[in-house]
Write a structure and sequence with these properties.
It is built from 3 helices and 5 strands. By secondary structure, the chain is α+β, with helices and mostly antiparallel strands. It has one domain: HIT-like (HIT family, subunit A). A 5-stranded antiparallel beta sheet has the order 1-2-3-5-4, with helices on one face. Strand 1 and strand 2 form a beta hairpin. The longest helix is centred in the middle third of the chain and has 21 residues. The protein is globular, with a radius of gyration of 18 Å. Bound molecules: guanosine-5'-monophosphate and zinc ion (ZN). The site of zinc ion has 5 residues, from helix 1.
């Protein structure tokens, strides 16, 4: 398959692999925002987070949670961003699901802050809340988590 992350997982492409389990692998991002920028990736080929099976999600975020403080400590960062780009509209460029761990420093030049804030008006705040709750409740009846 023509997927660079699958090639890395299969050891058909080089990567600076940091850690792996049966279901998840992590390696250094080749174009880091800051040094130590790491990707955490399910080993199965899933296009984005919505495609990752529920039983793998726990493994994925458990590794994100485990690695983050180790990486941040090792590169003496002052904070970190956890980012997942899902879909090209969100900036995804490699269509194999991955979570970024990005070390951050007070004085670095990176800004993930929102360039603008919208305002809900004319009751649309509660309307969005009502509509989204209805969508979620409908879907949640099929979920195992309660
Ligand atoms: P996205 O924009 O899809 O969220 O992020 C994809 C990330 O994968 C980018 O940060 C990019 O630098 C990284 N990347 C792309 N190709 C390679 C590669 O061949 N090896 C590694 N280690 N990282 C890659
Ligand atoms: Zn893949």
């Amino acid at each position: 398959m023509d997927c660079i992350f699958c090639q890395i997982i299969e050891r058909n492409a080089p990567a600076e692999i940091l850690y792996e389990t049966d279901t998840v692998i992590s390696f250094l991002d080749i174009l880091p925002v800051n040094f130590g920028h790491t990707l955490v990736v399910p080993k199965g080929h899933f296009r984005d987070l919505t495609e990752v099976p529920q039983e793998i999600i726990g493994d994925l975020f458990s590794i994100v949670k485990r690695l983050s403080p180790v990486i941040i400590g090792a590169v003496q960062a002052e904070g970190f961003n956890i980012i997942g780009n899902n879909g090209s509209a969100a900036g995804q460029t490699v269509f194999h699901c991955h979570i970024h761990i990005i070390p951050r420093y007070h004085e670095d030049k990176t800004r993930f802050r929102r360039p603008q804030f919208l305002q809900y008006n004319n009751g649309s705040f509660s309307e969005y809340g009502r509509n989204l709750r209805a969508s979620i409740q409908k879907e949640a009846s099929t979920w195992k988590e309660k």
